[in-house]
Amino acid sequence: MAPKDAPIITPELLLHAYRCGVFPMSQGGDDEEIFWVDPTERGILPLDGFHISRSLAREIRKEQYHIRINTAFAGVVRACADRPETWINSEILHLYMMLHHLDFAHSLEIFDGETLVGGVYGVALGGAFFGESMFSRVPNASKIALAYLVDRLNAGGFTLLDTQFITEHLASLGGIEISREDYRNRLANALELDADFERQSPVEASASGILHRNTQTS
User: Fold this and answer.
1) Could you tell me which of 13, 64, 45, 9 has the C-alpha nearest to residue 147?
2) What is the pLDDT of residues 144-203, one digit of tens each?
3) How far apart are CA 145 and CA 133, in angstroms?
4) Neighbouring C-beta atoms of residue 58, cutoff 10 Å
5) Which of 109, 116, 118, 177 is the most exposed, having the fewest neighbouring CB atoms within 10 Å of its CB?
6) What is the C-alpha to C-alpha distance for residues 117 and 131, in angstroms, rounded to an integer?
7) What domains appear along the chain, each with residue ranges and CATH number?
8) What is the pTM of this model?
9) Residues 106-154: pLDDT tens digits?
10) Phi and psi for 12 in degrees, rounded to 5?
11) CB atoms closer than 10 angstroms to residue 6
């Protein structure tokens, strides 16, 4: 719930905010207020610079998990919020569920059998994908999810993967920080594109295909 003097956040307002380069957060899962964030330094994961280590490549080759998209969106968001410190409150969950139903928000899920063990979700606009959060309940699940996500975004014609901030985890995978001005220029160019999150077929998204196409394995 927003403060009394603040406008009600709608899916349309949220999409407008993304187009302007800002995104919402709350102070915690039990905090009702939502505020807008516009970092001075923005985290991105270059789609031509994702780093797959030898150990991660070995995990991907095992193909021990099932990779799905948009089959458990709410489950992914709730799992991302299920941690001691979270910026996802009930209002944010509700907003992203609405964006999902409008086909703007997507999830990539890692299943062990029928158990959801990892995943990532975000918002797609033009050729920009705004990665919101990810989770892992087994070792390497979030890294595997990002590998499949990056490959899907490349196949779909995306040029920008926004990670908002850079963590040590993201930096190890090739994430970098850029200035607000640089980010907004990249965002403006990406928004002009007609990308498609679902363009890649399941056959194209095979483990061997991902590893073959990735040039950053070391």
Assistant:
1) 45
2) 999 999 999 999 999 999 999 999 999 999 999 999 999 999 999 999 999 999 998 877
3) 11
4) 10
5) 177
6) 18
7) 40-84+104-213 (3.40.630.70)
8) 0.91
9) 999 999 999 999 999 999 999 999 999 999 999 999 999 999 999 999 9
10) -65, -40
11) 12
